[in-house]
Specification:
Elements lengths: L6 H4 L3 E4 H12 L3 E6 H7 L9 H15 L2 E7 L7 E2 L2 E2 L6 H14 L2 E4 L4 H10 L5 E3 L4 H4 L4 E7 L11 E6 H6 L6 H11 L13 H9 L2 H6 L6 H17 L21 H8 L6 H10 L8 H11 L4 H23 L11 H11 L2 E6 L9 E6 L1 H5 L55 E6 H7 L1 H12 L1 H16 L45
Helix pairs in contact: 4-5, 4-16, 9-10, 16-19, 19-20, 20-21
Protein name: Flap endonuclease GEN-like protein
Keywords: Endonuclease, Hydrolase, Nuclease
Pfam families: GEN1_C (PF18380), XPG_I (PF00867), XPG_N (PF00752)
Length: 536
């Protein structure tokens, strides 16, 4: 997809952790990074998923979990009815993708993510959304969005390095301004000319015998800019432009090219006006539609945990208690990050009361037990927190049927790895380069677990715990105490004993003097009265 060989001209982009981009935007603006995603590319890629029930939609499910865990606000854009009738020399259909679109939209809604149907091609709509400031960047798998005028494009969301798990962490960032100022000098008009001359998504062959090097030289000579400034109805202007391009390519009179290309012939019908219009005037939403979207979009939709539980049970056959545990294990760390960030939106609710704040924090995180800077987040400070997965997800595990005793396995072959609980791969996973053989999981969602959380998110969601932890690092005695508290929180659930003492006034105990026995004349009944408790 895209322009063949284009990355040799514009480079591989700046490789940055998506979590770093997200947290920098959050620190600058107080809101997460907002990205538009062309969902059609994802729908194509996830077809490579294998194993289990509905591997394609399961691959999408894990991608959405990952997005939830890195504190971004995605807007998924679908192709509309007015997209070009052909692409890569094939007709583009509308009806074949309806069922996958329905399944995809339903899953997005359960995650609380927003979606938008473009009137035409999703890539062009994503670029418009970025230019209009509704999103900060576009996540795509090629740089065609640059041809549609996108300022910042993210591509190749994947793992970095060879160690650890293969969860996607980094993206390649392409900034339109930096690309133009770089050695390629390419801008939107230039990339359009390259696509027309050397081949692009609509006409893959381009001019016969013309490669990207010649097309790039023509672009730097200004032929792309002059072409895009011509009116589509200016036949005479287009003909003059074509003849000038052909003359310079063959004669190199103005020294625009490295050498003469005498055998390179420009076809009489070049450029194809229809294809040119797909690049220069794509079908996108009107200004009023974009304004309405800005005013009505709800970026932080509610994660429908019960709905997701039902979805994975039906789509992936994650049924019974075993399936519920697999569901909790995947969702809990991502939902923890999401909930911690959302607490920053509720600063006016309970944050003036230290006791209430401490209790609210304890519902999410039991303790902080470590810190690090890691390659998965490009050195952004992280904190190691202890939490209870069951408290975060909150489904009724006891209500799930337990059919583990209803069947067994008998045969010569060993039990396959796919039959074990499939854990969501987070950054907290082991980073050893040596392979580890996975055995049967005994993971218990009711017991405390650990996760790495970006420090900025932790300071928003659990400010008191972060403050106490940082104080303990400065005070050796408090550090020993904090480690002991974390150890207790790791071993058992519930609030540690004395966790609330620092927020209340503690009086010294005094000797209690028992009351004298009442006289018989005052005794009205031999029945023992219950003790009386005073309200606090």
């Amino acid at each position: 997809m895209g322009i063949k060989g284009i990355y040799g001209e514009i480079g591989a982009g700046e490789r940055i952790a998506l979590s770093k981009l997200a947290i920098e935007k959050f620190e600058q603006t107080g809101r997460p990074l907002r990205i538009a995603i062309d969902i059609s590319i994802w729908q194509f890629q996830i077809q490579a998923g294998q194993g289990g029930s509905n591997p394609a939609i399961r691959t999408l499910y894990y991608r959405l979990l990952r997005l939830l865990s890195v504190s971004v606000q995605p807007l998924f854009v679908f192709d509309g009815p007015h997209k070009p009738p052909f692409k890569r020399n094939k007709k583009t259909g509308h009806h074949g993708a309806m069922l996958p679109n329905l399944l995809t939209k339903h899953l997005l809604k359960l995650f609380g993510f927003q979606s938008h149907v473009a009137p035409g091609e999703a890539e062009a709509e994503c670029a418009l959304l970025q230019r209009e400031g509704l999103v900060d960047a576009v996540l795509s798998e090629d740089v065609d969005t640059l041809m549609f005028g996108c300022g910042v494009t993210l591509r190749n969301w994947s793992s970095e390095g060879t160690r650890g798990n293969r969860s996607p962490t980094h993206v390649s960032v392409y900034d339109a301004v930096k690309t133009k100022q770089g050695k390629s000098g390419l801008d939107r008009e230039g990339m359009i000319l390259i696509a027309l001359m050397s081949g692009g998504d609509y006409i893959t062959e381009g001019i016969p015998g013309c490669g990207i090097k010649v097309a790039s030289e023509a672009t730097r000579a200004g032929f792309g800019k002059s072409l895009c400034r011509l009116s589509r109805s200016d036949a005479a202007g287009l003909e003059a432009w074509r003849k000038n391009l052909a003359h310079e390519i063959q004669s190199n009179e103005s020294k625009f090219f490295r050498i003469k290309h005498k055998t390179l012939k420009i076809p009489e019908e070049f450029p194809n006006r229809e294809v040119l219009s797909y690049y220069t005037h794509p079908v996108v939403s009107s200004a009023s539609k974009i304004q309405s979207l800005k005013e009505n979009i709800v970026w932080d939709g509610e994660v429908d945990v019960p709905g997701l539980r039902l979805y994975v049970a039906e789509a992936f056959e994650w049924t019974s208690k075993v399936g519920a545990i697999k569901f909790i294990r995947g969702l809990a760390p991502a939902l923890l990050v999401h909930n911690l960030r959302l607490r920053g939106n509720r600063r006016d609710s309970g944050y003036g009361d230290l006791i209430l704040t401490a209790m609210n924090e304890m519902e999410l995180v039991r303790a902080i037990c470590g810190k690090r800077t890691h390659m998965t987040s490009d050195g952004i400070p992280e904190l190691r927190v202890i939490y209870c997965p069951m408290d975060i997800v909150g489904i009724d595990l006891d209500g799930e049927p337990d059919d583990s005793g209803d069947y067994g396995r008998d045969g010569l072959a060993p039990v396959l790895d796919d039959d074990q609980i499939e854990a969501y791969q987070s950054d907290a996973a082991p980073t050893s380069s040596s392979p580890q053989k996975r055995g049967p999981s005994i993971w218990d969602p009711t017991q405390p677990d650990k996760a790495w959380i970006l420090k900025t998110i932790a300071k928003v969601g659990i400010p008191l715990k972060v403050e106490d932890y940082e104080e303990s690092l400065r005070n050796p005695r408090k550090l020993i105490k904090a480690k002991a508290v974390a150890k207790r929180a790791e071993k058992k659930g519930g609030m540690p004993r004395g966790a609330m003492d620092k927020f209340v006034t503690v009086f010294k105990p005094h000797k209690h003097t028992p009351p004298t026995a009442p006289s018989k004349s005052l005794t009205t009944s031999s029945q023992t009265l219950p003790p009386v408790y005073l309200a606090p």
